[in-house]
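Q: Give me the 3D complex with adenosine-5'-diphosphate.
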Amino acid sequence: MTTSPTAIPPDQPDQPGEPDRPDARDREPVVAMTGITVTFPGVKALDGVDLRLFPGEVHALMGENGAGKSTLIKALTGVYAVDAGTIVVDGTARTFAGPAQAQAAGISTVYQEVNLCDNLSVAENVMLGHEVRRAGLVDFRGTRRAAREHLRALNLDIDPASTLSSHSLAVQQLVAICRAMVVDARVLILDEPTSSLDVDEVERLFAVVRDLRGRGVAILFVSHFLEQVYAISDRMTVLRNGTLVGEYRTADLPRVELVQKMIGRSLEVLEQLEEAPKRVAAERGVQPYVQALGLGRKGSIEPFDLDVYPGEVVGLAGLLGSGRTELARLLYGADRSDVGELRVEGQPTRLRTPRAALARRIVYSSESRKTEGIIGDLTVRENIVLGLQAERGWLRRIPQRKADEVVAQYVEQLGIRPADPDAIAGNLSGGNQQKVLLARWLATQPRLLLLDEPTRGIDVGAKAEIQRLVAELAEQGMAVVFISAELEEVLRLSHRIAVMRDRRKIGELVNGDDVTTDDVVDLIASGGQDA
Ligand code: ADP
Ligand code: MG
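A: Here is the predicted complex, encoded as structure tokens.
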């Protein structure tokens, strides 16, 4: 299933995107963005995207990480200039110079990181910039009274005199929303407001959101949590890779279809790969190399069980943001668990740092090879040797001969091109950079290899080579955890597939000929419960 970049609601036969709520039907959109294109050096973050917001609706902006959601919001509020496209607010074409201008036009944004002053009172935060003044001076009592009224208008029972920092993040979010409403926002943008809230706090937030909707405010809501999106939104716009997939009524779009639209399928790429034999039931060792027992971390990932045996590839499937990377981070000591137990070769183990994991022969190859991985200014040799160096500690020199040997071995084995250890890594293609990164970690002779999106954004040839390498490593007895957004790839390589959603492991599938991507998508969409 592919969509052309600017395809507008492709598969909604009936009046695409007409708001669901009857009272909003005849209205004009309060915001209409058309053909929005935003480029950053080397990245087209948005390519001809449309978005319409109607008064009195909650509109979910959906898409995996990097799809362009935040960029679209920033294009609307004037944080980023657009390269093409128009923004019409209340029927008039507008270009905002920044968020302040957008706010003056009635468009307020509450970001994920609360953008308030910790040490000031709730009242001061709500009224910041709009203090009640008398004879030019701030009237503190008047300001506090006004703040109380604004809080009451949202049914928020928060003491205006209390210090902001004395409240939970959830309450701070509500204060931020209240502050946004002081200026009578007609459009309220919430970019992942619920990421760190618990269930009750989300309910409290939603009560406020519903109330604002009832008063005719258009709310643009970004969240990774499908459950919440279905609970609160009337319509949604789905983005993928900076392009518009479509605009839908929430009630008309089953979850499975939403997930498919968000993930997309790059079938044409996959068809070019040889049809690798599906890997069925591994001949695995007797004891898992690692075993997670109720391992979890508050605010990051809920407690999960996971075994990874030597010689086995365990795939992690789930939407971006579903907790796959967070799970991996607990397995290599980048984050510390606060509940549960991790066993390495049967031994209860606490991994406090990636270095400790390395000592237990557990390595992680990062998703973002540009920012956390490859150092572009260093040579291929230097990049590979970094792994050995990390293993030994930074102060112990690695003998030149040993380094040369290891580097030559992996350049050869992984087919790194150019096959020149002195080439500057930053000049290599993405696929070859990924191989250099793999070489770095393989040089430490890991027993468990955690691969986070190792084939993302690389060409088809390199992708096939990396897939083949992963299969080979497992055959030689390495335990591998393989994270990829491409379900086809996960299914091709994995013996077992752990499925993640909303920062929770919701199930596990044993791979086999009868297992298809649809099975995984169904599991993601149903959340592990029978839908
Ligand atoms: P989302 O909010 O959907 O996760 P973003 O809008 O943050 O996605 O990012 C869309 C794309 O644009 C990504 O590829 C991201 O790396 C890129 N991007 C976002 N902001 C910038 C920036 N300031 N400079 C360069 N690239 C950026
Ligand atoms: Mg974002």
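A quick observation: The two ends are 24 Å apart (CA to CA).
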